[in-house]
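#lab-general

N.A. 3:47 PM
ok so I finally got the sequence cleaned up, no stray characters, all 171 residues accounted for. can someone with queue access submit it? mine expired

B.Y. 3:52 PM
send it over

N.A. 3:53 PM
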Amino acid sequence: MGYSAKAVANYFLARYGKEGITPLKIQKLVYLAHGWNFAFSDELLVDDEYAEAWQYGPVFPSLYHEFKHLGRKPIIWLATELKLESLFDDDSDVAVETPRISGSDKPICELLDKIWEVYGSATGLQLSEVTHRPDAPWDITRKRVGSKRNENIDNLVIKEYYRKIVKERNS
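B.Y. 4:20 PM
back already:
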């Protein structure tokens, strides 16, 4: 079972973001968690959208639009979603929902905690260096599409990349 990019971001923000996490850093943490999840599972971690290969790195558009007004300031609240309760009756209503990772999903919570343990002390710029490595999925996609903007990063490319890293480290 996958989650929205906002639910994954909210896990980091709620658990580790006491002083806030910059929009750049939250993008990279969610992307890295999505990739590393593929190293150990065939399941999508983020299943509501693709990471896109923007000029300056992988981006989940929903996170970008949620937090873009902050610039480089830290995020100090959780991401939300607007939900239409009903479209075709007189009781139509709009609700605000805070997407979350289920606490009962222990494997995902453990993965996200490990991502924070490994990458949590890094800055957004340092994490960009990780996601921008030569032959990483972002780099492959940017080379393939040239100047075309905001192309989806193929999840199969992400999966193969992270599984290759695990295989090399275990050799």
